Amino acid sequence: AIPLVVAINTSLAAQNGMLVRDRIAMEQARELDSIIFDKTGTLTKGEHGVVGIETVGAVDEDEALKLAAAVESDSEHMIARAIREAADKRSIDAPDASNFEAMKGRGVRATVEGEEVYVGGPNLLDHLDAGVPSALATFAEEAGENAQTVVYLVREGELTAAFAMADVIREESYAAVDALHDLDIEVAMLTGDSSDVANAVADELGIDTVFAEVLPEDKDKKVQELQDQGKLVGMVGDGVNDAPALTRADVGIAIGSGTDVAVQSADVILVQSNPMDVVRLVKLSKASYRKMQ
Ligand code: ADP
Ligand code: MG
Protein backbone atom coordinates (compact mmCIF):
# COMPACT_ATOMS: atom_id res chain seq x y z
CA ALA A 1 0.00 0.00 0.00
CA ILE A 2 2.84 2.39 0.74
CA PRO A 3 4.07 2.74 -2.83
CA LEU A 4 0.53 3.57 -3.94
CA VAL A 5 0.13 6.34 -1.38
CA VAL A 6 3.53 7.69 -2.32
CA ALA A 7 2.59 7.61 -6.00
CA ILE A 8 -0.65 9.49 -5.36
CA ASN A 9 1.24 11.97 -3.26
CA THR A 10 3.79 12.56 -5.98
CA SER A 11 1.17 13.23 -8.62
CA LEU A 12 -0.72 15.51 -6.23
CA ALA A 13 2.53 17.35 -5.72
CA ALA A 14 3.01 17.65 -9.46
CA GLN A 15 -0.48 19.11 -9.83
CA ASN A 16 0.55 21.70 -7.27
CA GLY A 17 3.68 22.65 -9.16
CA MET A 18 6.12 20.58 -7.09
CA LEU A 19 8.52 18.08 -8.59
CA VAL A 20 9.57 15.51 -6.04
CA ARG A 21 13.07 14.14 -6.60
CA ASP A 22 13.38 12.47 -3.20
CA ARG A 23 10.28 10.90 -1.70
CA ILE A 24 11.78 10.40 1.73
CA ALA A 25 12.47 14.12 1.96
CA MET A 26 8.90 14.80 0.84
CA GLU A 27 7.71 12.65 3.71
CA GLN A 28 10.03 14.41 6.17
CA ALA A 29 8.64 17.80 5.17
CA ARG A 30 5.71 17.27 7.53
CA GLU A 31 8.07 17.23 10.52
CA LEU A 32 10.27 20.21 9.75
CA ASP A 33 11.24 22.37 12.74
CA SER A 34 13.03 25.11 10.79
CA ILE A 35 13.01 26.38 7.24
CA ILE A 36 15.90 28.50 6.03
CA PHE A 37 15.28 30.77 3.06
CA ASP A 38 17.95 32.26 0.84
CA LYS A 39 17.24 36.01 0.65
CA THR A 40 18.12 37.26 -2.80
CA GLY A 41 15.96 35.80 -5.52
CA THR A 42 13.98 33.65 -3.10
CA LEU A 43 12.32 35.94 -0.53
CA THR A 44 13.05 38.89 -2.80
CA LYS A 45 12.66 39.12 -6.54
CA GLY A 46 16.35 39.66 -7.11
CA GLU A 47 15.56 42.54 -9.43
CA HIS A 48 17.97 45.16 -8.23
CA GLY A 49 18.04 48.73 -9.49
CA VAL A 50 20.71 51.29 -8.64
CA VAL A 51 19.05 53.94 -6.46
CA GLY A 52 22.07 55.89 -5.22
CA ILE A 53 25.75 56.52 -5.89
CA GLU A 54 28.27 58.15 -3.56
CA THR A 55 31.84 58.94 -4.56
CA VAL A 56 34.94 60.25 -2.84
CA GLY A 57 38.06 61.88 -4.28
CA ALA A 58 38.38 62.82 -7.93
CA VAL A 59 35.93 60.26 -9.31
CA ASP A 60 32.44 61.48 -10.24
CA GLU A 61 29.27 59.36 -10.46
CA ASP A 62 29.48 58.73 -14.20
CA GLU A 63 33.15 57.78 -13.99
CA ALA A 64 32.43 55.40 -11.12
CA LEU A 65 29.55 53.83 -13.02
CA LYS A 66 31.71 53.48 -16.13
CA LEU A 67 34.44 51.59 -14.28
CA ALA A 68 31.95 49.45 -12.37
CA ALA A 69 30.04 48.54 -15.54
CA ALA A 70 33.31 47.55 -17.20
CA VAL A 71 34.27 45.23 -14.33
CA GLU A 72 30.75 43.78 -14.22
CA SER A 73 30.53 43.23 -17.99
CA ASP A 74 31.11 39.48 -17.70
CA SER A 75 29.14 38.77 -14.51
CA GLU A 76 25.76 37.02 -14.43
CA HIS A 77 24.95 38.31 -10.94
CA MET A 78 21.86 40.50 -10.55
CA ILE A 79 24.06 43.18 -9.00
CA ALA A 80 26.10 43.21 -12.21
CA ARG A 81 22.95 43.49 -14.30
CA ALA A 82 21.76 46.45 -12.20
CA ILE A 83 25.06 48.30 -12.60
CA ARG A 84 25.16 47.73 -16.37
CA GLU A 85 21.57 48.96 -16.67
CA ALA A 86 22.31 52.09 -14.64
CA ALA A 87 25.27 52.85 -16.93
CA ASP A 88 23.09 52.25 -20.01
CA LYS A 89 20.44 54.63 -18.72
CA ARG A 90 23.04 57.39 -18.53
CA SER A 91 24.33 56.41 -21.97
CA ILE A 92 27.70 55.54 -20.49
CA ASP A 93 29.82 53.26 -22.66
CA ALA A 94 31.86 50.91 -20.53
CA PRO A 95 35.46 50.41 -21.71
CA ASP A 96 36.77 46.88 -22.27
CA ALA A 97 37.89 44.93 -19.24
CA SER A 98 40.42 42.11 -19.13
CA ASN A 99 41.64 39.55 -16.57
CA PHE A 100 38.10 39.21 -15.33
CA GLU A 101 37.72 37.22 -12.13
CA ALA A 102 34.52 36.35 -10.25
CA MET A 103 35.11 36.10 -6.51
CA LYS A 104 32.23 33.97 -5.26
CA GLY A 105 30.13 35.69 -2.61
CA ARG A 106 32.44 38.70 -2.63
CA GLY A 107 32.37 40.44 -5.98
CA VAL A 108 34.36 40.76 -9.19
CA ARG A 109 37.72 42.09 -10.30
CA ALA A 110 39.17 43.06 -13.67
CA THR A 111 41.75 45.26 -15.34
CA VAL A 112 40.22 48.40 -16.85
CA GLU A 113 42.31 50.98 -18.69
CA GLY A 114 45.43 49.53 -17.09
CA GLU A 115 44.04 49.78 -13.58
CA GLU A 116 43.04 47.04 -11.16
CA VAL A 117 39.37 47.52 -10.31
CA TYR A 118 37.14 45.60 -7.91
CA VAL A 119 33.39 45.80 -7.31
CA GLY A 120 31.92 43.96 -4.37
CA GLY A 121 30.25 43.98 -0.96
CA PRO A 122 31.40 43.83 2.67
CA ASN A 123 32.98 40.40 2.19
CA LEU A 124 35.20 41.86 -0.54
CA LEU A 125 36.34 44.72 1.69
CA ASP A 126 37.26 42.23 4.41
CA HIS A 127 39.19 40.21 1.86
CA LEU A 128 41.08 43.27 0.55
CA ASP A 129 41.45 44.67 4.05
CA ALA A 130 40.14 47.97 2.67
CA GLY A 131 38.95 50.69 5.05
CA VAL A 132 35.76 52.60 4.26
CA PRO A 133 36.05 56.43 4.06
CA SER A 134 33.53 58.06 6.41
CA ALA A 135 31.43 59.59 3.60
CA LEU A 136 30.90 56.13 2.12
CA ALA A 137 30.31 54.57 5.55
CA THR A 138 27.47 57.03 6.25
CA PHE A 139 25.99 56.40 2.81
CA ALA A 140 26.18 52.63 3.32
CA GLU A 141 24.60 52.82 6.75
CA GLU A 142 21.62 54.80 5.48
CA ALA A 143 21.20 52.48 2.53
CA GLY A 144 21.34 49.45 4.80
CA GLU A 145 18.62 50.83 7.03
CA ASN A 146 16.45 51.03 3.93
CA ALA A 147 17.24 47.41 3.06
CA GLN A 148 19.35 48.50 0.10
CA THR A 149 22.32 46.37 -0.89
CA VAL A 150 25.59 48.32 -1.13
CA VAL A 151 28.57 47.42 -3.29
CA TYR A 152 31.85 49.28 -3.43
CA LEU A 153 34.25 50.28 -6.18
CA VAL A 154 37.91 49.76 -5.34
CA ARG A 155 40.32 51.29 -7.86
CA GLU A 156 44.04 50.68 -7.53
CA GLY A 157 43.56 49.83 -3.86
CA GLU A 158 41.44 52.92 -3.11
CA LEU A 159 37.80 52.71 -2.16
CA THR A 160 36.31 55.41 -4.37
CA ALA A 161 32.58 54.86 -4.71
CA ALA A 162 29.56 53.04 -3.34
CA PHE A 163 26.37 52.01 -5.14
CA ALA A 164 23.07 51.43 -3.34
CA MET A 165 20.67 48.96 -4.89
CA ALA A 166 17.06 48.29 -4.02
CA ASP A 167 15.52 44.88 -4.39
CA VAL A 168 11.85 44.04 -3.94
CA ILE A 169 10.42 41.60 -1.39
CA ARG A 170 8.08 39.10 -3.03
CA GLU A 171 4.47 39.74 -2.02
CA GLU A 172 3.99 36.05 -1.12
CA SER A 173 6.95 36.07 1.30
CA TYR A 174 4.89 37.84 3.99
CA ALA A 175 2.11 35.25 3.97
CA ALA A 176 4.59 32.37 3.76
CA VAL A 177 6.42 33.41 6.94
CA ASP A 178 3.12 33.85 8.81
CA ALA A 179 1.77 30.50 7.62
CA LEU A 180 4.96 28.67 8.61
CA HIS A 181 4.74 30.23 12.07
CA ASP A 182 1.15 28.97 12.30
CA LEU A 183 2.56 25.50 11.59
CA ASP A 184 5.06 26.01 14.44
CA ILE A 185 8.00 26.16 12.05
CA GLU A 186 10.88 28.51 12.79
CA VAL A 187 11.83 30.69 9.82
CA ALA A 188 15.45 31.64 9.14
CA MET A 189 17.18 33.62 6.40
CA LEU A 190 20.60 32.95 4.89
CA THR A 191 22.43 35.48 2.74
CA GLY A 192 25.78 36.72 1.53
CA ASP A 193 24.44 40.26 1.76
CA SER A 194 25.29 42.64 4.63
CA SER A 195 23.68 42.22 8.05
CA ASP A 196 22.05 45.68 7.69
CA VAL A 197 20.09 44.58 4.66
CA ALA A 198 19.45 41.12 6.03
CA ASN A 199 18.06 42.49 9.31
CA ALA A 200 15.89 45.06 7.55
CA VAL A 201 14.31 42.37 5.36
CA ALA A 202 13.99 39.97 8.31
CA ASP A 203 12.25 42.63 10.45
CA GLU A 204 9.89 43.45 7.63
CA LEU A 205 8.92 39.79 7.19
CA GLY A 206 9.02 38.71 10.85
CA ILE A 207 11.82 36.21 10.34
CA ASP A 208 13.19 34.58 13.51
CA THR A 209 16.86 33.92 12.73
CA VAL A 210 19.27 35.72 10.40
CA PHE A 211 22.55 34.46 8.97
CA ALA A 212 24.18 37.34 7.03
CA GLU A 213 27.48 37.97 5.22
CA VAL A 214 27.85 34.22 4.81
CA LEU A 215 30.32 33.13 2.15
CA PRO A 216 29.07 30.53 -0.35
CA GLU A 217 31.36 27.83 1.08
CA ASP A 218 29.93 28.41 4.57
CA LYS A 219 26.22 28.31 3.77
CA ASP A 220 25.85 24.58 4.46
CA LYS A 221 27.46 25.07 7.89
CA LYS A 222 24.52 27.25 8.91
CA VAL A 223 22.13 24.44 8.03
CA GLN A 224 24.31 22.09 10.08
CA GLU A 225 24.23 24.54 13.01
CA LEU A 226 20.46 24.21 13.28
CA GLN A 227 20.63 20.45 12.74
CA ASP A 228 23.13 20.24 15.61
CA GLN A 229 20.41 21.75 17.82
CA GLY A 230 18.37 18.64 17.01
CA LYS A 231 16.17 20.33 14.45
CA LEU A 232 14.88 18.91 11.19
CA VAL A 233 15.82 21.60 8.69
CA GLY A 234 14.46 22.61 5.29
CA MET A 235 16.40 24.93 2.97
CA VAL A 236 14.90 26.96 0.14
CA GLY A 237 17.19 28.51 -2.46
CA ASP A 238 17.76 29.36 -6.09
CA GLY A 239 21.45 30.03 -6.59
CA VAL A 240 24.59 28.08 -7.45
CA ASN A 241 25.77 29.27 -4.03
CA ASP A 242 22.87 27.55 -2.32
CA ALA A 243 23.63 24.06 -3.68
CA PRO A 244 25.72 22.72 -0.75
CA ALA A 245 23.13 24.02 1.74
CA LEU A 246 20.32 22.39 -0.25
CA THR A 247 22.22 19.10 -0.18
CA ARG A 248 22.91 19.38 3.54
CA ALA A 249 19.32 20.17 4.51
CA ASP A 250 16.91 17.39 5.47
CA VAL A 251 14.58 18.80 2.83
CA GLY A 252 16.28 20.81 0.07
CA ILE A 253 13.86 22.92 -1.95
CA ALA A 254 14.79 24.75 -5.15
CA ILE A 255 12.52 27.43 -6.54
CA GLY A 256 11.48 27.77 -10.16
CA SER A 257 13.80 30.54 -11.24
CA GLY A 258 16.69 28.56 -9.79
CA THR A 259 19.92 27.67 -11.52
CA ASP A 260 20.53 24.10 -12.78
CA VAL A 261 22.95 23.40 -9.95
CA ALA A 262 20.37 24.37 -7.33
CA VAL A 263 17.74 22.23 -9.02
CA GLN A 264 20.07 19.21 -9.13
CA SER A 265 20.88 19.56 -5.43
CA ALA A 266 17.28 19.78 -4.28
CA ASP A 267 14.86 17.10 -3.05
CA VAL A 268 11.83 19.04 -4.23
CA ILE A 269 11.64 21.61 -7.01
CA LEU A 270 8.98 24.29 -6.90
CA VAL A 271 8.02 25.07 -10.47
CA GLN A 272 7.13 28.66 -9.66
CA SER A 273 9.11 31.12 -7.56
CA ASN A 274 6.43 31.48 -4.94
CA PRO A 275 7.43 31.11 -1.25
CA MET A 276 3.81 30.12 -0.46
CA ASP A 277 4.48 26.87 -2.31
CA VAL A 278 6.83 25.94 0.54
CA VAL A 279 3.83 26.14 2.88
CA ARG A 280 1.75 24.05 0.46
CA LEU A 281 4.52 21.47 0.36
CA VAL A 282 4.56 21.09 4.16
CA LYS A 283 0.77 20.88 4.26
CA LEU A 284 0.66 18.33 1.47
CA SER A 285 3.26 16.22 3.27
CA LYS A 286 1.23 16.38 6.49
CA ALA A 287 -2.01 15.48 4.73
CA SER A 288 -0.57 12.64 2.64
CA TYR A 289 1.49 10.83 5.19
CA ARG A 290 -1.02 11.02 7.95
CA LYS A 291 -3.17 8.71 5.82
CA MET A 292 -0.49 6.04 5.81
CA GLN A 293 -0.47 5.48 9.55
P1 ADP B 1 23.08 35.94 -1.80
O1 ADP B 1 23.56 35.02 -0.73
O2 ADP B 1 22.34 37.11 -1.22
O3 ADP B 1 22.27 35.23 -2.88
P2 ADP B 1 25.71 36.08 -3.16
O4 ADP B 1 26.38 35.01 -2.35
O5 ADP B 1 25.49 35.83 -4.60
O6 ADP B 1 24.35 36.61 -2.49
O7 ADP B 1 26.57 37.40 -3.03
C1 ADP B 1 26.89 37.88 -1.76
C2 ADP B 1 27.46 39.26 -1.84
O8 ADP B 1 28.66 39.26 -2.63
C3 ADP B 1 26.55 40.27 -2.51
O9 ADP B 1 25.60 40.83 -1.63
C4 ADP B 1 27.58 41.29 -2.96
O10 ADP B 1 27.96 42.09 -1.87
C5 ADP B 1 28.76 40.45 -3.37
N1 ADP B 1 28.76 40.11 -4.81
C6 ADP B 1 28.58 38.90 -5.38
N2 ADP B 1 28.68 38.97 -6.72
C7 ADP B 1 28.89 40.27 -7.03
C8 ADP B 1 29.06 41.00 -8.27
N3 ADP B 1 29.05 40.44 -9.47
N4 ADP B 1 29.26 42.34 -8.16
C9 ADP B 1 29.29 42.93 -6.97
N5 ADP B 1 29.14 42.32 -5.79
C10 ADP B 1 28.94 41.00 -5.81
MG1 MG C 1 19.85 33.77 -4.17
Would you give an account of this structure?
- The protein is α/β, with parallel strands linked by helices and 293 residues long.
- It folds into 2 domains: 2-45 and 169-290, Rossmann fold, CATH 3.40.50; 49-166, Calcium-transporting ATPase, cytoplasmic domain N (3-Layer(aba) Sandwich), CATH 3.40.1110.
- 43% of the residues lie in helices and 24% in strands.
- The protein has 13 helices and 13 strands.
- The strands form 2 sheets. A 7-stranded mixed β-sheet has the order 1-13-12-11-2-9-10, sandwiched between helices.
- Strand 9, helix 9 (195-205) and strand 10 (209-211) form a beta-alpha-beta unit.
- Helix 1 packs antiparallel against helix 13 (276-290).
- The radius of gyration is 21 Å and the shape is elongated.
- The N and C termini lie close together (11 Å).
- The structure holds adenosine-5'-diphosphate and magnesium ion.
- Magnesium ion is lined by residues 38, 40-42, 238-239.
Query: Mean pLDDT, rounded to whole units?
Result: 92
CATH homologous superfamily grouping of the largest domain: HAD superfamily/HAD-like
Question: How many strands in all?
Answer: 13
Structural class: alpha/beta
Unreliable residue stretches:
none
Counted up, domains total 2
Would you state the CATH class of the largest domain? Alpha Beta
Bound molecules: adenosine-5'-diphosphate, magnesium ion
- Strand residue content: 15-25%
CATH fold field value of the largest domain = Rossmann fold
Q: Main beta sheet: strand number and arrangement?
A: 7 strands, mixed
Helix content: 40-55%
- From the spread of the alpha carbons, the general shape counts as elongated
State the end-to-end CA separation. Answer: 11 Å
The succession of helices and strands, N to C, reads HEHEHEHHEEEHHEEHEHEHEHEHEH
Protein name: Copper-translocating P-type ATPase
Subcellular location: Cell membrane
Organism: Natrinema salsiterrestre
Family: Belongs to the cation transport ATPase (P-type) (TC 3.A.3) family. Type IB subfamily.
